[in-house]
């Protein structure tokens, strides 16, 4: 049996799915022009560098701002965000924890902390962080989806289904919620529900190659290679082949679709009536 195409990661609220500090954290008062304090000057240098995607320069500037004023959570937050942009995830975790120590209700810090923890496969910690983010902002669909993804990655399919269903209620037209819900149902071997939600994802996004590919897997799962001489199994395999072909048409570089087509055509040919 082919493997499902990967679940979506949560939707991006900034680079790599994180909340972008330069957009969400404004330079703290006081400070205008020549009256800026030295920590504010360093902070603004960091913002400017981060806006230009010069992350190492931003890190240096934010570290200076933190050194000069270690009680400002914005400085720690933007330093964490720049470290995250730079791929220094362990250091970013430390800085987000510093933000939370200074400001336990910092929603974006909890969210980004969970995002990194999920990426580092620290699933129990990520679950706690996303739940904290949702305690602060219960309608954050991004956090709901990422919490569902974390449950999914930790093989807790029942809870992942609950979270994806919540996300669909928040935004019924969200493609990734339907797609990931379908993947969760498939992981529980509930093929009928998986097919329903893959079809819904396709309805919402008709050029979604991964959804066609995974729908093909569902059809193939409902058939049986040893029973391909029977009409029912053959019909399921032919429907699977059709979906794989559509996936490859939409994404000519989808190697797994090409391989699935080749294998399925051989199986069907070897069992020609």
From TrEMBL:
Alphabetical list of SMART domains matching this protein? SEL1 (SM00671), TPR (SM00028)
Q: Which InterPro entries match?
A: Sel1-like (IPR006597), TPR-like_helical_dom_sf (IPR011990), TPR_rpt (IPR019734), Ycf3/AcsC/BcsC/TPR_MFPF (IPR051685)
- Cited Pfam families: TPR_1, TPR_11, TPR_8
> What SUPFAM superfamilies does UniProt report for this protein, alphabetically?
TPR-like
* Positions annotated as TPR repeat: 39-72, 73-106, 107-140, 141-174, 175-208
Keyword set for this entry?
A: Repeat, TPR repeat
**In its UniProt entry, what is this protein called?**
UDP-N-acetylglucosamine--peptide N-acetylglucosaminyltransferase SPINDLY
**Species:** Octactis speculum
């Amino acid at each position: 049996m082919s493997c499902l195409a990967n679940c979506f990661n949560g939707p991006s609220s900034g680079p790599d799915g994180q909340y972008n500090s330069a957009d969400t954290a404004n330079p703290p008062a006081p400070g205008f022009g020549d009256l800026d304090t030295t920590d504010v000057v360093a902070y603004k240098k960091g913002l400017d560098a981060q806006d230009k995607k010069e992350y190492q320069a931003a890190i240096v500037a934010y570290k200076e701002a933190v050194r000069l004023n270690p009680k400002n959570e914005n400085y720690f937050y933007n330093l964490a965000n720049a470290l995250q942009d730079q791929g220094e995830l362990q250091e970013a975790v430390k800085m987000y924890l510093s933000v939370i120590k200074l400001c336990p209700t910092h929603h974006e810090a909890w969210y980004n902390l969970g995002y990194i923890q999920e990426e580092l496969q620290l699933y129990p910690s990520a679950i706690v962080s996303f739940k904290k983010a949702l305690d602060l902002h219960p309608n954050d669909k991004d956090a709901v989806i990422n919490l569902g993804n974390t449950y999914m990655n930790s093989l807790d399919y029942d809870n992942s289904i609950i979270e994806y269903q919540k996300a669909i209620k928040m935004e019924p037209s969200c493609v990734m919620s339907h797609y990931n819900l379908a993947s969760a149902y498939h992981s529980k071997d509930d093929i009928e529900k998986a097919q329903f939600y893959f079809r819904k994802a396709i309805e919402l996004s008709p050029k979604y190659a991964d959804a066609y590919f995974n729908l093909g897997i569902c059809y193939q799962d409902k058939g049986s290679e040893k029973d391909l001489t029977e009409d029912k199994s053959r019909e399921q395999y032919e429907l699977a082949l059709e979906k794989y072909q559509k996936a490859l048409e939409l994404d000519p570089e989808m190697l797994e679709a090409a391989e699935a087509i080749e294998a399925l055509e051989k199986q069907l040919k070897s069992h020609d009536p």
